[in-house]
Amino acid sequence: MKKEVPCPSCGAPVVFQSAASIMAVCAYCSSTLVRHDLDLENIGKMAQLQADGSPLQLRAEGRFQGESFTVVGRIQLRFEKGLWNEWHLLFDDQRSGWLGESAGIYAVSFLTEVGEEIPKFEELQAGESVILKKESYEVTNVEKAFCVGGQGELPFQIGPGYEAPVADLAGAGKQFATLDYSEEPPLVYMGEYVEFEELHFSGLREIDGW
Amino acid sequence: MADPSLTAPPSTPVSPRVKTLKCSGCGNPLTVRGMERTEAVACEACGSVIDLTDENLRILSTFQSKIKHKPLIPLGSRGKVRGDLFEVIGYLRRAVTVEGEDYEWSEYLLFNPYKGFRWLSEYNGHWNFIKTTTNIPKKKGDGVRYLDKTFLHFQSAESRVTYVLGEFYWKVQAGETCKFTDYIAPPLILSKEQTPQETDWSIGEYIEPETLWSAFRVTSPMPARIGVAPNQLSPYSGKVASLWKLIGYLFLAAVFIHLALFFFSQNKLVFENRFTFQQKDKGKAIVTEIFDIFGRPSNVVIKTAAAPLDNSWLFLNMALISEDGRAYDFGREISYYHGTEDGSAWTEGGFSDEATLPSIPSGRYYLRIEPESSAPMVNYHIRVYRDVPRWSFFFLALGALCILPILLIWRVARFEGKRWSESDHPGTVWMRIPDSTPEEEEGKEKPKGKVSR
Q: Which of A22, B19, B31, B437 stands the most exposed, by the fewest C-beta atoms within 10 Å?
């Protein structure tokens, strides 16, 4: 599955670990590369990500519910409350997942098909209930997040500065869901909140003094 | 971030570290320990709160406080709390005004780059270790359900920030307000904080100050605890059940002792005789024949029955006298009255009496009886029993046993009264004794409509 292609801009090897990835940011020259059938299109430099003190980094490895994953990409978003990372996880079975991470809060989710109709973004309000896969979720945050930039490989194309209207939802126990209105119909990501130690990370960033 | 030079290894992480910068207000050096997550830092020297997300480090607000508060746990201290290492990076004070009175408490912001943020709060020497919750407690009555526990509503109020020191993950402002509601299930406390933008829930656990003092190696003296904290575990919680058990055992022991006494008592009739009183005998004393009283010093019960009594009385001035002259004097009255009042019949008194003389040593005794009566003639029958088992001792023992639970209930009530005195529900202790034992899950919730509030 793993594919290595030279960066059209600087020639450095660009690795696509997931067959599902259509976009990658060159680790050397920050060129944003979109994968077509045969070649890579350079759509310009990716904006610098903001320092956010995250202990995660590309190529870090971990486990979720007994399955191993590698961190292969990242989208950095700015919310009212601060920076939020969506780390693109590639599981051993080639499944893509997402690890939402900000200031010690971790949530793993997967793109999920739901039978229910998703309320419109404008109609959503914090505190109201939404039914997803026959279960009740409460909207905890509705916000137009702002994309700071990306890193590594991603299953869709992103551009810095694009607005991502998103809603976070909490269900029973640790259940967690995100509604992403950047596409029509909105994408539903469902998963759960996890504690840091449950993810059994290795290959994290070294943090001075910790 | 990614180094544009080809020679650098891919995505070399710049290791996050402690930063120092200068206060835009006074030039005092500031330390930023929360790494890139800190949004605002408050200068100790001048009280300026600086926006770290702003290139020019603009001043967000300035705290003008006459009193300089010193955190009990200094900023920069590191300690392990509940298994994780945290560093104290921020300190703030909040106040609420209830019925014209200000209550102020301290909050310490703790940071760990992997685990994120936690809080320690301190009020009147009581401490809580607090974490933001990711899932939302469910409403239940005027309380909430969380972690299979019912939390009781304690207080709703609005707090304001009165003092800040160090750094925070949001742009903290002087006087910024927040509506909060506290729910308790000791030793836990759930707090709902509401600002116009969002609602946050956090869960706190009562933590012994000694634990913190040793974890953070605090050298300053520990403030004494005043009163009872909302979520302080009652010293009687868990002990109540074992005390009831103990009381149960003591009760059984009392029953057993009573049965034993009952079984081993002589309960023996030692004298019996019938007498007749007539008005002509008035003022004359009768002396019975001598009878024997055996055994260890024990009680003697004199049972008397009298007839006929018809709206009249019989008074017996009696003495139990031993052969060697010791006398136990006692007077007994038997009376019976009846009549009708407002169409209904009433009676008062009866035809018998029982007198107990305690601790009578064995020996030869006789009775001296001096009768008096309002009736012209009364027959009476006297029986003397030795060593009669008494229920009164049993009931006394039961009474003594009741003192313990009454004392316990009183102390529990006093503790809970103190706890609730600062809540929105003072004086409703009995309705609101928190129960920290897990409850049975209620019936599965039915899925609600698509959109409901």
A: B437
